[in-house]
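Appendix B, Record 12. Input sequence as logged:
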Amino acid sequence: MMNLSKIKAVHVSTVHKYDDTRILHRECKALAEAGCDVKLIIPHCKAEFIHDVEIIPIKKPSWLLARLFTSVPKVFFKLLKFEKTAVIHLHDPELIPAGLLLRLFARTVIYDMHEDFPAQIHSKEYLPEFIKKPLSFIVKVFERIFLTGFSGIITVTEPILQRLPERKSTLVQNFPVNSEIEPGKEAHRDRERIIFYVGDITKPRGLTEMLDAVSISGPEKKARLVLAGRFSPPRTRDEAELHPGWEFTDFIGWADRKQLNEMLKKSRIGMLTLHPYTCHLVAQPVKLFEYMLAGIPVISSDFPMYRKTIEDAQCGLLVDPLNPKEIAEAVNYLLDHPDEAEEMGRKGRAAVLEKYIWENEARELVSFYQKMSRR
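Logged structural output:
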């Protein structure tokens, strides 16, 4: 990998957790391993070093307006104190105005688009339906106008990349790190009948349908649904606990990388039954590739991007995410055919190791930083 020993990188988020997978464990770590002096300004309780990355803690107010009028200005003035040669790397939409102001002070500023935000608006349950389409359009226009002011833009999927300025944009995809996830040694047929889901636990991400499906497969096949992550909004958990499928469900909370690895080793199936919102149709959820790397078959929404990956690798089953009966039938099939399920898992892992591994993306990130530092 290229050497970045003469470059200082300052990553900033006012929203994400300090141990965010993409920010800390992927991008910051990769840059530090390339010799870069990496700082991470992010909500945290203490200053510390992780992966040779210096964590600079800030407070995180709960309300967006409080962040906009307190956290963002404080971060802006903190960033002005860094030398002009530093590469500033922003991770939140609310930091876009600060990034543009920094450009006026001749700073090199990268904006990292983790999501398709215009598309994501359509999945926000708290927004009235009549406002989603015009708001999505406004955000897309805002994005098109203001992102051109940044030194560089990084994003996560091809569909997003295609609408960005070609000369200053690059693709760094959310693929797993090879060394972080190992396949379980126990044969699938000997494992507990665990159906595993990791990530934000929400209705648009298929919570209700997963509970519906396990209420069918649970008593029939002695299966259990294990949920790892956070309920959003928090009241969603109260509603889930009233569902008949909760009897066959275990909620383990947020899982760190080690806990995730251990849970994947025990599981028989990985769940990815997101609803057909635009933001999901064009996404590449990292959980898909984590399931594959762990060597477990996937039950996934039948969306074009997911279908191509799963059918090419022959690593799972595709379903209508709004049809709990179809999901349950897929669960039952994989539990009833453990040898076939195990073979799907092997093929999925082989595909990730060949094509969908973070190490390739890390090289693209380092190359982009070299390009930015020469400007």
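DSSP finds 15 helices and 14 strands in the chain.
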